[in-house]
Specification:
Blueprint: E1 5-9, H1 13-25, E2 29-33, H2 36-44, E3 49-53, H3 61-71, E4 76-81, H4 86-94, E5 99-102, H5 107-134, H6 148-162, E6 167-171, H7 178-187, E7 196-200, H8 206-214, H9 231-234, E8 239-243, H10 250-262, E9 264-265, E10 274-275, E11 279-284, H11 288-293, H12 299-306, E12 309-311, H13 322-337, E13 343-344, H14 346-354, H15 360-374, E14 379-380, H16 408-422, H17 427-434, H18 438-447
The protein binds adenosine-5'-triphosphate (ATP) and magnesium ion.
Length: about 450
């Protein structure tokens, strides 16, 4: 494996020296450590393979093995043991060591093991890359996460995909995966080989939107010098994704409702009904219920859409998915940027887990992408993620009151919840984040009846 880095861990300088010397001769890059502590630190610098002595001054080799495997399960470890007891070797293999060699060892034998191990690493990486490339772009597995909340979403999307349901409503904040969910439904349905047509309702003025959706006849309006098929017609047999459905005007809402109920429509300026078979997936990051209350959205259309509604939970409500999403994006951008970044340091991981992600998965994806572009080391840490230290605009000295006003009580509650979540419900730390003392935060926890989540 070209340019592979081998970390040699042994407390005896002479053994280290002889191994390093030989490895360098063979063209490998090397790192070395004489203690367990140093070994773990050096491993973070990015080693592909570790030669690990069993008896270290500050810890047992098995402990080091465990830590290395926890940081990066892909690093292969060859244990060096003076202890001929079979038990030790077996324990090492059980904990994921690739191989072991008894001391005193033969350098040629070690070099063969090294070569074999690195071949394995190389193959594993290639398999991972290939899998990542071949994975169906919009299969259910493209929705990353194992939290209960996202499992429910995945199962529901699957059920809908294989059902005859002709209308689906996806709701959720920006960046929660509504576009992705729409594609997953289409591509895991029997409609997968037919068109998936996508339109953002807010992007076009209403008259244009209508003719984009339903098409128009020749002469229907000035400039309509030819007949034109609309998206709905083009998508026949497939799916139409109407993004930002909350933005369409009442007139178009009625036309859409008629289409959903009768599966038939007229082109603009046309008189005959055209029948098509399409599934309509609508998405919104507004509460349609609110829009109905305010009289901006037709109640009947809302009910029609809401029959099959899938709410996509905000990322802060399914924090257990954050580590998996980080790994997913690290893998993705490693391939894209040809990097070998192993992951995120445990403390940065924790900080990312407790950050509030107002922009949801999109924000997380962008944060990892940026961190990976700029990072020089094999592991990402807090300094690579500006969101973790951004003060959120310095509002402490006073923020501007928006023209529409705010709900002070709700704002206070939200800030207290964020501080508690970010500090893992450590009241002292949370209080510090808010410039309060313990009694003051306790008072607020009681006032808002906040409870530590049970997971
Ligand atoms: N569970 C998930 N697993 C993997 N990737 C996800 C997941 N959810 C969202 N994403 C990714 O996050 C990004 C934003 O998602 P998407 O565009 O679907 O959000 P959205 O809900 O449509 O947002 P908006 O309301 O702003 O249009 C995309 O790159 C998408 O692939
Ligand atoms: Mg979207």
């Amino acid at each position: 494996m070209p340019n592979a880095t081998v970390l040699v861990v042994d407390d005896e300088p002479l053994i280290r020296w002889s191994l390093i010397n030989r490895l360098k001769e063979e063209g490998y890059r090397t790192l070395e450590a004489g203690t367990a502590g140093d070994a773990v630190a050096q491993h973070r610098e990015g080693a592909d393979l570790v030669l690990l002595d069993f008896a270290l001054p500050d810890a047992n080799g098995l402990d080091v093995l465990k830590q290395i495997k926890e940081t990066d399960p892909d690093t292969l470890v060859i244990m060096l043991t003076a202890n001929t007891e079979v038990g030790t070797a077996v324990a090492a293999m059980k904990q994921g060591a690739f191989h072991y060699a008894n001391k005193p060892f033969d350098l040629d034998e070690i070099m063969m093991l090294v070569e074999k191990a690195l071949e394995t690493t190389q193959l594993r990486r290639e398999v991972r890359t290939l899998r990542a490339r071949q994975a169906q772009p919009y299969g259910p597995e493209s929705i990353v996460g194992q939290s209960d909340a996202i499992k429910t979403v995945r199962a529901l999307l699957h059920k809908i995909a294989v059902s005859p349901a002709s209308t689906v409503l996806l709701t959720g904040e920006s960046g929660t995966g509504k576009d992705l969910a729409a594609k997953v439904v289409h591509y895991s349905s029997a409609r997968a080989n037919k068109p998936f047509m996508n339109i953002t309702c807010s992007a076009l003025p209403e008259t244009l939107l209508e003719s984009e959706l339903f098409g128009h006849e020749r002469g229907a309006f000035t400039g309509a010098d030819r007949q034109k098929r609309g998206l709905i017609e083009t998508a026949d047999g497939g799916t139409v994704f109407l993004d930002e459905i909350g933005e369409i005007v009442p007139l178009l809402q009625s036309k859409l409702l008629r289409f959903l109920e009768e599966k038939a429509f007229k082109r603009v300026g046309g008189s005959s009904d055209i029948k098509v078979d399409v599934r309509v997936i609508a998405a919104t990051n507004r509460s349609l219920e609110e829009e109905v209350k305010k009289g901006r959205f037709r109640e009947d259309l809302y009910y029609r859409l809401n029959v099959m509604a899938v709410p996509l939970p905000p990322l802060r409500d399914r924090r257990d998915d954050i580590p998996a999403l980080i790994t997913h994006y690290v893998d993705t951008f490693n391939v894209e940027f040809r990097k070998k970044i192993r992951g995120v340091s445990p403390s940065a991981q924790e900080a990312l887990r407790t950050y509030n992600w107002p922009g949801n998965v999109r924000e997380l994806r962008n944060a990892v992408e940026r961190a990976m572009l700029l990072s020089e080391s094999a592991e990402l840490n807090e300094s690579n993620f500006p969101v973790l230290s951004a003060p959120g605009g310095d509002v402490s000295s006073g923020m501007n009151l928006p023209a529409s006003g705010i709900n002070l009580e709700a704002l206070e509650r939200s800030l207290v919840v964020q501080a508690l979540e970010r500090s893992g419900w450590n009241q002292t730390k949370a209080a510090t984040l808010l410039g309060l003392n313990r009694d003051q935060i306790r008072y607020r926890i009681e006032k808002f009846e906040l409870e530590k989540p049970q997971h």
